[in-house]
Each structure stands twice: as C-alpha cells, then as structure tokens.
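<goal> How does this chain fold?
<body> The protein record starts here
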Amino acid sequence: MKKKLYYENLARNMLLYKELGKVLKVLNEAQIPVLVIKGAALAQMVYDNIGLRPMEDIDILIHRDDLWKIKEELLKIGYVLTPTGEWTFAKEGTQAAIDVHTDIFYVKDDELWKNAQTIEIEGQKALVMSPEDSLIYVAAHSSVHHGTVSKVWMKDIVYIIKRYREELDWNIVVIKIMRYGLQIPLYCMFAVIQKHTNCIPRFVFKDLEPKGLGFFKQKLFQKILSRHSVDDIGHILYPLVIKGFMVKVKYLINFLFPPVEFLYRRYNIKNPKTARLYVLLRPFLLIYKLITLLFKLVSVKR
C-alpha cells in the first residue's frame, strides 16, 4: 500500500512540477518575482525524492502589486481564476492548481523576500524561503492557520531540521518567532514534535516558554492542537497571535467587511444587487460560523 501511495505521489508531483516549470518560465520572462512555498518548495529543498512529499497543488507568494500582472500571464498559458474567494487558478485538462498568496499573516514587510534563496525547478530559477523562515512558516501554518499538528507538516519540520542541521540558526528562529507573536503556538507545536523526534535544541523551549498570562493561551493552544483540524479555525486564532490592538481591530473589520471584489470571487456572484446583499449578510453569517467553530472546538476530539 505504501509503495502504491508513493508512486501515486510521484506521478502527481511530476505533473505538478512540470506545470510549475511552465509558470515560472512565463513569470521569469515577465520579470515578476515569485516565492515558491509549501510542498512545491519543500519537496525540492529538503526531501531526497519528490515522491516522498504529498502535494495537492502549487503555492506561490507574490507582491500584492504584481497580482494583476500574474493573472494576465497565467491566463496566457491556459489558467483560469476559480470562484473560491482566494486567488486560485486551475488549468483544464491537468490536475494543476496554482494558489497565489499575497501575504503571510504574521509578516508585514519584505523580510521573507530579503532572506530568500534561489534554487532551480524544472530548469527555471525560483525563490524559496530561507531554512529559518521555512521552519517558522510550516509550523505557523499548521498550528495557527489549521489549528492542528499535521503529520505531513510535522514531517516537513523534521526534514528541514535534518537537511539544514549545520546551517540552521536556532537563535534567529527564536528571535523571529518572538517578534512575529508566534511564541505560544510554536512552543506547543515544537513540544509535540520533540516527543517524537528529540531534534529541537533545549534552549529553544527555555526561550519560548510562556510566562505570566501566556500560560492560559498556552493551555488553549495545547487543547486545540490535541484535536483534529477544524475548517477555518485560523480566523479565530489569527487575532490571538497578531500583535497590536489596532492591527487586531483592522483584521476583524477587513474580515467582516471585505472588498466587494472579494465577495464576487468568494461566492461566485454575478449580480451587483446580490453582492450588496452579501455585504449586509456576511457579518451575521460569519458570527454564526464562529459560534459553530467554537462548538466544534470544544466537542471534536482526536
């Protein structure tokens, strides 16, 4: 069964990388910078064989100002924007889906870009996160965005640590985690990984250990991470980790009252009147969804 799964992963990933090579080619020719993230980066960076890392799609990070340029370039090679609310492009006749991200929730500047490294994917130059940034991103994506300790992402973290054992700077990792406000969720995430692998230095836990009122937030994340992932839980957890009262307020306002253009994509709306209706209804729908998520959080167990 494992052998069959491996060959299925390998075949799918080969097709995805072939498409990624085409995407990188047109974006490089258009001089549009792109950071390849998640599985598409990690399978190439830290796994000895791309068949060992399951992938469902391709994720890239771009500068927000380049969004419409990238849309034009992807349309030229047969991709279309799907009505999901996110910037996801699909290509008919292939299994490829390109998820385009314009930001990472805990980083507000170009730090990831400044530290990026260059690798080659399918004969094309591609930017990927530094080892330290990759480690933090995978851990935050699992523990905050999805609110769970995924086996795949836990394996990613272990592979990053082993692959970059000699060059990974844990002092930088700790400093960045503290600056990003990720101290508690990543402390809890690392604690779970340590039980299985013992690959994280002890001083990391000493430096990240929550103090004072952080103890209660630690207990909350420990409870969350001990359960199955709950869809959209990241919307609840983001305000707990992003720093600054006004930043939290701005996030909540944008979440409840997003741009109308987002509503058109999110709900596949064609009629302006329907869009205006969704503007009015969305806060109530989200509050209902929040209550449902909280109920799942206290009732769903592994």
